[in-house]
Amino acid sequence: MMQLEKLELPGAALAPMAGFTDAACRRMAARHGAAWTVSEMVSAKALTFGDRKSAQLIWNGENDAPYGVQLFGAEPETMEKAAALIQKYEFDFIDINMGCPAPKITGSGAGSRLMLDPALCGKIVQAVVKESCGKPVTVKMRTGWDADHVTAVEVAKQVEAGGAALIGVHGRTREEMYTPGTVNRQIIRQVKQAVSIPVLANGDIETAQDALSMMAETGCDGVLVGRAALGNPWLFAQIKAALVGESIPPAPTLRQRMEAMRTQIYEMCEEKGEWVAMPQARSQALHYMKGLKGAASLRRACCQLAGFEDVDRLIEQVYEAGNH
């Protein structure tokens, strides 16, 4: 069994999200108690072609939490080559994407499309393990492709046989996308019972209580938190406290929220340059506005962020709207 001692279980980790979980986002999550973080998904095929953008997605910078690089692809040989190519970077484990529902990913046979071929899933893991240099290989999957192809249990068995050290299960099929309230905890429980490696649950975890009930109902070893942590990295510390039976930390003050947003966007600009960072920062800022007064005008202001100086004007607007 590959060593997982760096990955804190039970725990709450930041789920990989394309367009969101860049180095600054991962660092913010780690500062607030994320057990570990994972890169945005990286194309194995693009890596083998020497694509510079894919290589940039892997860079992690300063981050105290264990860090994994997520690869996607549909061909074992290509995934094997990509696993070998990324060894020059600093990371702790490799995660394989078998859950992305985006048509541009599934159209190539990758992401959640792999759920239709459990045997291929096992072969991909085996190929990546071959070139992982002893680092753990984990898998992020869905419950299946659609209601007629709920294959999570069979895929889990295949990837475990292929050498996977841990499985994360998003409790929806590809057909269900991200529809709220559709997470199937029973399937996650079945996956946990079918394998001997750790299983993490993902989907509709928005509070510490959600994490506790998810673990109680599924028997899983930890949780992956995605969208609910955007603009609310304090959720990780709250879940962490709940899991060990400690008092749950209070919600952040408005000042703490604004300072965190400003810090995250500043680090994005430092690492990518304003031209690249600010369009991405608009989406991050929108999440920090959740629940505030004057939401409509604040959303418009977020969408108009063009330079870092606009972030301070946005914060002024937050207070002017009567938030405190």
Indicate the mean pLDDT: 93
Low-confidence parts? none
Query: Helix proportion of residues, in percent?
Result: 40-55%
Major beta sheet, specifics?
A: 9 strands, parallel
Query: What's the helix count?
Result: 14
H and E string: EHEEHHEHEHHEHEHEHEHHHHH
Number of strands: 9
Please give the radius of gyration in angstroms: 19 Å
β-strand percent reads: 5-15%
CA distance, first residue to last residue: 51 Å
Shape: globular
Structural classification: alpha/beta
What this model shows, in words?
The protein has 324 residues and is an alpha/beta fold. 45% of the residues lie in helices and 13% in strands. The chain has helices at 23-31, 44-48, 52-58, 76-85, 103-106, 118-130, 152-162, 185-194, 208-218, 234-243, 254-272, 274-288, 295-303, 309-320, and strands spanning 12-14, 37-38, 42-43, 67-72, 93-98, 137-144, 166-173, 199-202, 222-225. Strands 1, 2, 3, 4, 5, 6, 7, 8 and 9 form a nine-stranded parallel sheet that branches. Strand 7 (166-173), helix 8 and strand 8 (199-202) form a beta-alpha-beta unit. The longest helix has 19 residues, at 254-272.
Walk me through the topology.
Blueprint: E1 12-14, H1 23-31, E2 37-38, E3 42-43, H2 44-48, H3 52-58, E4 67-72, H4 76-85, E5 93-98, H5 103-106, H6 118-130, E6 137-144, H7 152-162, E7 166-173, H8 185-194, E8 199-202, H9 208-218, E9 222-225, H10 234-243, H11 254-272, H12 274-288, H13 295-303, H14 309-320
Parallel strand pairs: 1-9, 2-4, 3-4, 4-5, 5-6, 6-7, 7-8, 8-9
